[in-house]
Amino acid sequence: MPKGIYQVPFVGNEPVLSYAPGSAERKELLATYKKMYQEIVEVPQYIGNKIVKSGNKGEIRPPHDHQHIVGYYHKGTQEDVKEAINEALKARKEWADLPWEQRASIFLKAADLIAGPYRARINAATMIGQSKNAFQAEIDSACELIDFLRFNVEFMTQIYADQPISSEGIWNRVEYRPLEGFTFAITPFNFTAISGNLPACMAMMGNVVVWKPSDKQVYSAQVIMEVFKEAGLPDGVINMVLTGGAETAKTCIEHPDFAGLHFTGSTSVFKALWKQIGDNINTHKTYPRIVGETGGKDFVVAHGSSDAKEVATALVRGAFEYQGQKCSAASRAYIAKSIWPAVKDEMKKALDSISVGSPEDFSNFVTAVIDKNSFDKSKGYIERAQASSEAEVVLGGTCDDSVGYFVHPTVIETTNPKYESMVEEIFGPVLTVYVFEDEKWEETLELVDQTSDYALTGAIFAKDRYVLNQGMKALENAAGNFYINDKPTGAVVGQQPFGGARASGTNDKAGSAMNLMRWISVRTIKETFVTPKDYRYPFLGKE
Ligand SMILES: NC(=O)c1ccc[n+]([C@@H]2O[C@H](COP(=O)([O-])OP(=O)(O)OC[C@H]3O[C@@H](n4cnc5c(N)ncnc54)[C@H](O)[C@@H]3O)[C@@H](O)[C@H]2O)c1
Ligand SMILES: N[C@@H](CCC=O)C(=O)O
């Protein structure tokens, strides 16, 4: 047990390296990328103390060069998932009983390993496997993951320090116990940081975890496991299985010791999982915690008083960074008629200067979308817009999957504010713009609020403070992360806690104490120093 009330070293947000031409970090990252590109990686499952190589291999191909194989991942079975659950449950007691500062040390060390010796490797794996450019890899797989690990340790200590008051003669305490049973993390392809954070933050609070990453993110997932192992994470605490989503969910959710789901991914999958958990509620020993951060149809609404160049820049970065494959990506924009010609012109200039290609070339702003399904999906929206009487492709529109899944940044302009690409999540570099009459500002705000089921991120642009205030009120429930005169992407851990409501998720705010609270079950302890020896009230029966 701790012999002191420790304070954790806390250093704030990890500085983002610039990768300037000639910099040491650029040289190291490029050399690592090239080396890893030529090697054949084998990604195993991590179950208890075993590194499991089933021999049933799935290929890992860079989305920007789909004929090239960089390695294989070993697919598991449901027997592996059952073993992972057993190993997690076996590890539970010792891990849950470990003093918090020992758990904290492991994750702080993991953060330092990523900040130092693993930085180039985890960024290169993210560039190769998920086709992020170096700058996007740096903010995700290095900085955001490091921040999640360090800030969550800080939040954990804040939670533990939060204690009730005590009246005279008693001492009240609360104990923040991990959940009873095992927890289950399912993670998406698009952020290495999310993938590492979901299992890690549950483990940090003393839980044991079965983690199923996306089969499109296995390369960087392996680096995460290597880091956790090197940081000293005991066997069985986080077990990584490489199995099908639906079957794995069934095995975990039907288990009596299933204690919590930490999910990030699409809305339809999360809704199905929620239902499945409800259907199995009589099997579970405890009410499972359910946290899910899901899809978005994120908006930018620009008032006539806003600066056209600022709006255009926010749209280009917000909609097209990482090929629009951010849950937060700007994908529907409402632009006042008086500024639209200037906004379009600025966007055209920007898009004309954007090059599309492999992340190995650091001058490429846009690289490939994740796979053929994603490519076909974006292409479908573009082709339907080209054929539609209600929409027009005004910028971009080129798609080419001969080498990689490249979709050029595309802007659709529609006359129908409920046109399909104003409503549905595309998750690709396709932005749809609806131009409104300047005097219809209030109706437009209502439209923004009512058009989509999602409520993840959104941005408002205006110079007039009354207008901003009006927009903030009208859009109060339309976004969990709301931006004023900025793009709707790029939340930073500790600065903008992230998550949305409505169909976008449970809004438990990744990278905050609010999220960590979901992975603990509080025991309240009252200790009485001088225990009464007589049942009677002092004046009972006395007049
Ligand atoms: N709100 C957020 O914080 C946030 C962050 C990142 C991504 N996302 C969302 O994630 C989606 C993109 O990621 P994706 O393509 O990896 O999502 P996805 O839903 O296809 O997959 C997410 C995970 O669920 C698994 N899965 C798929 N089908 C399953 C099933 N039937 N049962 C159980 N698991 C299943 C996948 O294998 C993967 O591990 C987008 O909708 C995006 O908006 C949201
Ligand atoms: N937190 C990220 C988005 C994560 C979802 O894909 C952002 O704020 O842009």
Plain-language structure description:
InterPro entries: Ald_DH/histidinol_DH, Ald_DH_C, Ald_DH_CS_CYS, Ald_DH_N, Aldehyde_DH_dom, P5CDH/ALDH4A1, Proline_metab_enzyme. One of its GO terms (molecular function) is L-glutamate gamma-semialdehyde dehydrogenase activity. Pfam families: Aldedh. Pathway: Amino-acid degradation; L-proline degradation into L-glutamate; L-glutamate from L-proline: step 2/2. This is L-glutamate gamma-semialdehyde dehydrogenase. There is one protein chain. The protein is α/β, with parallel strands linked by helices. The chain has two domains: 76-294 and 505-525, Aldehyde Dehydrogenase, Chain A, domain 1 (3-Layer(aba) Sandwich), CATH 3.40.605; 298-484, Aldehyde Dehydrogenase, Chain A, domain 2. Helix content is 39%, strand content 19%. It is built from 16 helices and 23 strands. A seven-stranded mixed beta sheet has the order 14-17-18-13-12-20-21, sandwiched between helices. A five-stranded parallel beta sheet has the order 9-8-7-10-11, with helices on both faces. Strand 12 (298-302), helix 10 (308-320) and strand 13 form a beta-alpha-beta unit. Helix 1 (24-38) crosses helix 4, helix 3 (100-115) packs antiparallel against helix 5 and helix 4 (119-130) packs antiparallel against helix 7 (218-230). The longest helix has 28 residues, at 134-161. The radius of gyration is 25 Å and the shape is globular. The mean pLDDT is 98. It binds nicotinamide-adenine-dinucleotide (NAD) and 5-oxo-L-norvaline. 5-oxo-L-norvaline binds next to loops.
